[in-house]
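Table S7 (text form). Paired inputs.
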Amino acid sequence: MSDDPVNSDWWRQAVVYQVYPRSFADSDGDGIGDLPGVTSRLPYLAGLGVDAVWLSPFYPSALADGGYDVADYRDVDPRLGTLEDFDRLVAEADRLGLKVMVDIVPNHTSDEHEWFQEALRAEPGDAARERYVFREGRGPGGGLPPTDWVSCFGGPAWTRVPDGQWYLHLFAPEQPDLNWDHPEVRADFLTTLRFWSDRGVAGFRVDVAHGLAKDLAEPLRDIGDVPGYEPEDLPEDGSHPLWDRDEVHGIFREWRTVFNAYDPPRIAVAEAWVRNSRRVSYARADELGQAFNFDFLGAPLHAPALHSVIDGALSAAREAGASATWVLSNHDVIRHRSRFALPDDLTGAGRDAWLLADGRDPEIDLALGLRRARAATLLMLALPGSSYLYQGEELGLPEVADLPVDVLQDPTWERSGHRVKGRDGCRVPLPWTRTGPSYGFGAGGAWLPQPRGFGELSVEAQDGQAGSTLELYREALRLRRALLRTDETVEWLGSVAELSAGVLHFRRAGGWHSVTNLSASAVPLPAVGEAVLSSGPLADDGLPPYTTVWLREAGA
């Protein structure tokens, strides 16, 4: 990818499209998406109007956690291609004017990583084990885990090896946690960042960015009933033994020296599930530069709640000197078309139960979910900052909630004792055509089964169809590029009463207005200019329920 020092701030208001490579496009018909498949579909993404493509992990992996168990950080899984295929992908993206970002997974490796295999062959106390977190157990014969720490996927966060020691894994047992106090670990990741930057990568999405630094001083501390997996459970002072410790920022300041050695500097965005007040540090210019704002993703479609979340995100971004980030779907959450069809008060365990019921309890109205999803998307794309789109959301894909349990791949299913179905429903391979063995995903089948009717949501079915979700995204991204200015502020308009009634109205620089009606009744349309795009048909009596419209002032 060619470097463009003139456009070093391209990321501040970029639209980034997340590709989950195994589910995007399959070039060889083996049922698994691959890098040549991604390359073949890059013209589609350029035509959609995005600025960058973020690739979820494509590294060698045993797929214990969908590729987030990395066996080699500087290679490509042979099932997905080769380094030469990656270079061709970057070259084609560059030709089309697209940046490429990649996932980096620094909290843990695969248990097949050469370092961990070396650690398993070593004796207790050997230096090879110091790159990970090995400890003696508690109780008679060391038969109990060293602490009460629990895995994000369920069950204990410790696994015992044959010689009696235990190793830490805050995710699956196949994902042993690295010891970031070890200088060799730090140095090796700097090498990895340079490796991909030298190949033309423009930036990195940093997985579990808040988990690298841990308090490993003896004796290790138990944490009781508050594992710290929810941001509100984490202390404000960074004192949790596992998550969001202040020491993590020294790691990212070291990474920034690598990013800034390139022209333009490489960018990064943190996946950090932390309190709002603590997220700012990850996004500072001397660290990663951006951090995902998951409050927007998790907020209900209520105007006052969204107003508060948006204001908070913009304020935090200003404090960090960064731009805000917005996201509605990704590879870890229920797709927002289905999420917005569920009752607003159904969260957490209720959504897990809905998935366990194969999406049948409660029954949902997917037409309403799509209407609400389109309104939320147009609202998101009107906001200043970077918007991150997840593959297939431009097609209005729903969650595939009724996957048979015998095809599930997410480790959460087994680790939770079959109480949590997991994330496979948002990772089902994309439909590109109306017909075919995998609706155009590849010449054969797909590694996760696609539902009947997927073909009518395909790119082929929606391409050129007025009013389709695909065409809405294309037009929104075209207009967004034309209407955006460098100014990253919003001017809130409308009264408190209108906000309480469900109306979000703001103005962007250059006379561009966004108005969203999140109530169940039509509301008057502000007389501020001409409607240039709406998420659904406008009505004679005003702005219909669950609809967003963009307006442009006369002469703007």
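Next pair, protein 2 of 2.
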Amino acid sequence: MRERSRGHGGSDRQGAGRHGGGRPYGRGASGSRPYGDGGRGHGGGREGAPRRASGLRRGLAEELRGLEGAQYGRYKGLVGRWELPGGTVLELVRAQSDPYAPPARVALHVPAGQAGFPEELWSTATRRRALASYLARQAAGAVRGERALRVDAGGQEVLARSSCSVDAADGGVTLRLGAALPGRGRRIDAREAERLLCQVLPRTAERALRHDASDAEEVRRFIETVEDSVALREALPGLGLVGFVADGAVLPRRSGVDDRPATGSGIVRFESPEELRVEVELPHAGRVPGMGVPEGVNLVVGGGFHGKSTLLRALESGIWDHVPGDGRELVVSRSETVKLRAEDGRHVERVDVHAFVDHLPDGSDTTDFSTENASGSTSQAASLCEAVEAGARVLLIDEDTAATNLMIRDARMQTLVAKDREPLTPLVDTIRSLHRDHGVSSVLVMGGSGDYLEVADRVVMLDAYRPSDVTARAHEIAAVPTGRRAEAEAFPGVVARVPDPASLDAEVRGRPRIRARGEDVLSFGDHEVDLRAVEQIADPRQVTGIGLALELMVRRGHLDGRRTLAEALDLLDEELAEDATAALLTVRDEDFAAPRRFETAAAVNRVRGLRMLRR
């Protein structure tokens, strides 16, 4: 789990924590059909083990008993689909090679007739994603205490996960989980294996994956909460908003390692200033009042410890949906929102940063800029240009984690250091052009730079966690000249780049290596991709999803050495919109959560050894 202290600063937060939620992907994740072969081999147990014409095998318990004390590798002979009592199908997708290897991969397929969920609960992609998330959580609770079994249920976000999917055709349910197959040393412990596979897992399906065993009201509330969040997010463009924070929302988190809502008498629930209050009609919650964050340049100001970063963090996580009771269920941002920060030492490959960095002393061409060790200012400039290149329409920046010299150069510094001796052009001089000329809005947290008051369309002040609209007063103050001169007239736009797919090879010794190390590092082939500064990753499983998405783009030819990165991401979005989980499962059956295009693009841009072509 990522430490929140790694760069948010956060001197003005009520609470800190991870951030996240879920993004809808078209049809959602239908998963494997219960009775198809799915393209996987069934392996084989003892010669003559009973099979059915459909490819299902019977007698798993008997097969296991015959393996008592056998070499551990004999588990591989059980790979395939087995019919269990009650109609559930257990599939051993991948067996462990030895007791110390990563857990085996197991899937439970519950046919629609056994699952029994009414069609209204899975009739849309959003409902399927929400129902699957709910069921994964129920299954995780059902196997709690079984150390050999692991269900990826997630945290406060409702993401499209490989751990559970609902079939779009008939409502059948598939649960995928890790299972450490029992052994005594390097010998099979058949009795314990029989208990896990033939008793615990069927009981889990019975208790957690069937409608008649579920709390119908709780299921409906979970689905309706997600559906309202999606509807609210989709309504933002038509309202001219980039974000919305509902009245009564609980924004602070319990701690930097606990993303649940903070509790206690000192917690202040959010209440919108009258000037920014809007009401939105939602499918289930009805008419909901809250603060609308308008398009344009928005400034969040206030003293330290008063809640500025907490508000920004809520908008940062508003790209995802949240579980009921999270406190941020109706805090949303446009799906094209990207958080930026400075990132000393990052790799930059052929990015046009001349809007912010020009005439370097060594004569480097900043219209085609590369470095293996970017400074804070050049890294932030590159990240902004890369985000816009990938399609970002809203930028979030907190001065606590930004490069000061890229954000502002005040009048006194302009007087002391002439512009022809300063390569950097501060963002304050291009931020309005980003919106006016390119349709890119922004929300900036500022506690120390008053020069942004002059360029802001809206200014919200946080005082003891309570927001007020101080735009009029801010503009009065900004009307008093400081002697500062603008150093740029416009943001010129970005240059499209074409990734070389040969530089994005996931294979190591003939096999793909895609592995997450928490939320911070993706092992992709020989590359260790540092994602610490990609702050909208909500869950470690999304890091795995990012790696699978990169590999999918290469395998499918979306990255072909001719298409731009943005064009390849468009094709990826189309593929994930069909069925995000199923598409990524074609790369590898693993626990993952589907990523957005922006985190995938950020990973591409941080691969050391990446080669980019220019159109």
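The radius of gyration is 26 Å.
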